[in-house]
Design a protein that fits this description.
alpha+beta, flat
Length: about 80
């Protein structure tokens, strides 16, 4: 089973490197008065990572709201 995981990891790495080398053209991103020029593959990687971070924060916020709404308050007496 270890060799299957290794083969899958190598295939994924090959796909990532192929994507990177096919998207070397540069793009310019502008926001307000700032601009940034970088390769398209790096821009997509940055957007992906930013999406993972914000998605994880959003899901944990929703989970805490649901947990707070479904738990009973402690009885004081």
């Amino acid at each position: 089973m270890r060799y299957v995981y290794l083969a899958l990891l190598l295939a994924l790495a090959a796909v990532v490197f192929l994507f990177k080398f096919q998207n070397l053209e540069t793009v310019t991103v502008q926001f307000l008065s700032a601009s940034l020029t970088l390769p398209l593959s790096l821009l997509l990687l940055g957007v992906y990572v930013l999406g993972m971070l914000t998605g994880g924060v959003f899901l944990s916020l929703i989970r805490s709201w649901v947990h707070g709404a479904t738990t009973k308050p402690p009885v004081r007496g």
